[in-house]
Amino acid sequence: AMKLQSPQFQALFTPGLRSVAELFEKKNYELRIAGGAVRDLLSGMTPQDIDFATTATPAEMKEMFTSAGVRLINNKGEKHGTITARLHEQNFEITTLRIDVVTDGRHAEVEFTTDWEKDAERRDLTVNSMFLGLDGMLYDFFNGYEDLKNNKIRFVGKASERIQEDYLRILRYFRFYGRIAEKPGDHEPSTLQAIKENAKGLAGISGERIWVELKKILLGNHVNHLVRLMYELDIAQYIGLPLAGNLEEFARVTKNIQNLCPKPMTVLTSLFKVKDDVTNLDLRLKISKEEKNLGLFLVKHRQELTKAMGPEPLRPYQDFIMDSREANTNSKICELLKYQGEEHLLREMQQWTAPSFPVSGHDLRKMGVSSGKEIGTALQQLRDEWKKSGYHMDKEELLSCLKKL
Fold it and tell me: Ranges for the tRNA nucleotidyltransferase/poly(A) polymerase RNA and SrmB- binding domain (predicted)?
C-alpha cells in the first residue's frame, strides 16, 4: 500500500479541512480526496481545486453540517449528490459515492452507494479514478498510479462503455493525453478503435461543453498529433472543425507558437482556410464574440500583414494599430505575431505603447483655421506627415508643417 506524505499534500490541511475531517470522523463517515486532485498530488503538483467523496448521503451531510452550524452553499449540485460547505473562508465540495443507473451519452441518473470501487468504476480514465485518504493512504482500483507513472492514458474498464456513458469523454481522453503522455502516438489501438466507432456521439453534445475541452487540448502538448488524430478518427466534423482543415498550416503554426502562450483561438485558426470556417465553428460551439473576432482577424490578415524589410520590421503592425479605430487591436496584433512565430517582434510589441497624436482641432483654431471641414482635412494631412515620420514629429514640427501646407 502506498502512503503519500508530500509537502503539497500536507499543505492541504487548512483549518477548514481539519474541521471538516473532524465532523466526518465523529459521525464515522468516510471522507477521501477524489479524482483530479489525487492525480495532481501524485504528480507532485498542488491541485487547483479539490473534490471530496464520502460514504455519507447528501441528507446525512446536511444534517451533520446544519447541526454543527456550518453554512451550506446551494450550488444546485444536490441532485448529483454534491453538498458544498463553507468553513474558515473556504468551500468544500463533497459528493456521495454513486453508481450510474441510466446514461444517455450526456447525463446520468445516479443512485448512492458506500462502495468505493463501484464509484471508481464509473469514472472516465484510470488516472482520474483514484482516492486518497486524509491519512495519505492511496485507494487505486484500476492501476491508475501505475499508469500515471508510465504516462499512460487509459479508460477505466472497456473504452466503448465509458465513452457511451458520456461522449465528451472522447475529448477528455485527448486532453489528458496532452497533459500526461510523453510522446505522440502512444495509444492502445483498441482505444482508438472505440473512439472512431463512437465519434458520431459527439454530435449530441452541447457546443459549450465541447469548447471547454477543445481549448484545453489546444493549449496542451502534442496538439498537432491530437488534432490530426481527430481528423483520422472522424471526430472533426462533429465538433465544428472544417471538413478539409489545413493540417499543413496547423503543423507549422503549432511549431511557431510553442513557447509564446497563444490564445486557443490563435492555434485553432491555422486550420481554417476561409472566414466561413470561423462562422461555422461559432455556430457549433457558441464561442465568445472576442474569440470569433480574433479568428476572423487572423484569417483576414495573416498573409499580407507581415514584417517590413529593413531597420523597422514592426512598422506595418504599428501603422495598423495607429490606423485602427478599435479598442483591442493591440492584443490581436500580438496574437498575429505569435501565429507568425515572430518571437522577437512580439517582445518588442509588448513593450511598445501607441503614441498619441499631438495636435488637436483646438490647436488649429488658434492658428486661424476656422471651418470644421478645413480642420478635418488639415488634421488628416498632419496625421499622414506624423505617420511618415514614424510618429516622431512633435506638436511644433507638425504645426510648422501646416504653414507649409
Answer: 188-239
